């Protein structure tokens, strides 16, 4: 989950793109503000990383933890 104009989101997206690219894992980003339910649930925590729809982490990418979860 990301938000336009969010510096932490830009950093997290770059990290996720690099890690997923290295592991060959597809990924996508969604605008938290495009859905009222997402905004209510995740709006104060962006960026939020979900893996298979389950919250994995927020604000910063923990690289080793993400790599482990994606393997």
From TrEMBL:
<dbReference type="InterPro" id="IPR036249">
    <property type="entry name" value="Thioredoxin-like_sf"/>
</dbReference>
<dbReference type="InterPro" id="IPR008554">
    <property type="entry name" value="Glutaredoxin-like"/>
</dbReference>
<protein>
    <submittedName>
        <fullName>Glutaredoxin family protein</fullName>
    </submittedName>
</protein>
<dbReference type="Pfam" id="PF05768">
    <property type="entry name" value="Glrx-like"/>
</dbReference>
């Amino acid at each position: 989950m990301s938000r336009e104009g969010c510096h932490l989101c830009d950093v997290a997206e770059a990290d996720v793109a690099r890690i997923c690219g290295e592991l060959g894992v597809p990924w996508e980003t969604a605008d938290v503000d495009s859905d009222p339910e997402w905004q209510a649930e995740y709006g104060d925590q962006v960026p939020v990383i979900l893996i298979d729809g389950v919250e994995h982490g927020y604000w910063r990418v923990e690289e080793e933890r993400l790599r482990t979860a994606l393997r």
